Amino acid sequence: MPLSNAQMRRYDHNVLRLPRDKRTEYNAQVDRLIANLQDTVRGETEIRITRVVKAGSFAKHTILRRTSEDPVDVDVVFYIAGEDASVETIETLTARIAELLRTKYPNKSVEDFTIQSKAATVAFVGSGLSVDIVPVIEDSSTSGYGWQYDIRNGSKTRTCAPCQIKFVRDRKDADPDFRTLVRLAKRWRNRAEVRPLKSFAIELIMAHLQDVHGRSTGIEQRFRDFLLYLAQSDLRDVITFPENGGSVPTFGDPVVIVDPVCDTNNVASRISETERAEIAAAAHQAWETAYFASVEDDPALWRELFGPTFETEFE
What we know:
Blueprint (H helix, E strand, L loop, with lengths): L4 H12 L3 H25 L3 E8 H5 L11 E10 L5 H18 L5 E6 L4 E5 L4 E10 L6 E5 L6 E5 H14 L3 H15 L6 H15 L5 H15 L39 H24 L2 H8 L9
Parallel strand pairs: 2-5
Antiparallel strand pairs: 1-2, 3-4, 4-5, 5-6, 6-7
């Protein structure tokens, strides 16, 4: 017998969702970092920060609570004005931001500083929180938009952090269970170690299924439909959204999921052909497990998908 919506929501609320007190703690820690960095940048460099936006899964409320398999990270987008939009500029900015962070925080409070391809990452010891500082060259002609650069390959992507947050909020407004479904999918992804399937891609695939099929079935069925879609489509379908306006360029990547806020950006461009096949195979296996778990009403099978903390009945 399928799990009821109430059971799935209890599991999400009690196990998957980031608790209110932890969100408050992380918000305060990130706010202190933003204030420190803004003050330091303003006082020691010519960089002009025009806007700061908390982004990613944390801002979209699709983040999972922290476990050994589920890290907690927050993207913080720093919009920069008055700089040349070039990879050299971003590389210099990212290195400078990392340097400023190292001088601002004592070693005892920070575990590591890392320069990623698009961000400077700081990992805090006590909370286990990782913060990605993402510099974006502001597009002054369009509010919220800017250019994000990859310092390793020189590519640039037009992006809009507030627009991406709004996209998920709109889907949640249309379906209150949307974020629950995303968290279920992310928990399965982490448990199955299907790492190439990034969180943003999961959000967009779930949004695509909602746009096409609506919310006519229960949460469990829709989660199984997500797995079945990955398995049956082999991730070969080109996914677009009403927000794209019906006209998008042709991409040559194995997996194409068009960014709803930027038609020229393929969110799944880094998924290789081998990884595409691995994701589809993992989803097929997971769908079979979920199907039998539903038919047999077997919590042990659900724990194969979600881990030993899977529980739907709480006192």
